[in-house]
Amino acid sequence: MSTLRAMRRLKPDPVPDELLERLVQAAVWGPSGSNAQGYQYVVVTDPAVMARLAPLWERCVDAYMATAGGAVPEGMDPAAYERMVAAIRHQRDHFAETPALIIPCYRYPAPKPDVAGLRRSAAALGAAASLRLTRGQKRIMSLTEASSVYPGVQNLLLAARGLGLAANITIWHLMLEQEWKRALAIPKEVKTFAVIPVGWPLGRFGPVRRRPVEKVIRRDGW
Question: Which ranges carry the Nitroreductase domain (predicted)?
Answer without folding.
Answer: 5-200
